[in-house]
Design brief:
Helices cover 43% and strands 11% of the residues. It is built from 6 helices and 5 strands; from the N terminus they run E-E-H-E-H-E-E-H-H-H-H. Helix 3 packs antiparallel against helix 6. It is elongated and about 50 Å long.
Length: 180
Amino acid sequence: MSRGSRIKEGSVIDHIQLISVGDMIEAINGQSLLGCRHYEVARLLKELPRGRTFTLKLTEPRKAFDMISMRSGGSRPGSGPHLGTGRGTLRLRSRGPATVEDLPSAFEEKAIEKVDDLLENYMGIRDTELAATMVELGKDKRNPDELAEALDERLGDFAFPDEFVFDVWGAIGDAKVGRY
């Protein structure tokens, strides 16, 4: 499941005794969230009708790692497949094996930070997962039109204005050439 789709300290759900900070949200009303990004989970939660009962399926992070260890057959340290250097992100998927993704490069980190700032300025939200997705979609595009197409295809629900897309294109370009 996505990094970031977990219960945060101080949130409404954090006050429910059966739920712990860091628990991973595995499903909402039976709909699997494995492989979903943080902003997709947040959107699904926001779309739940107020006053109506819903169900969450949660997994403690430790149990999730144990499940992966059992599946990979690694019963002792170093015996199973190497999961990385510790500088990666574990991503659970609804189909296919769990993978460890490398942390963003210095350019990507700076671009994500700049795009996250733009999200706050234009939309009043901060969401590094959304910013990271936008950088991933835009880093190999040749012009703002290609970026706009990619954003519409993947993130069309947001209906980003042209001016915002142009600024995102500029932020990614600035980070590429080291202009911070």
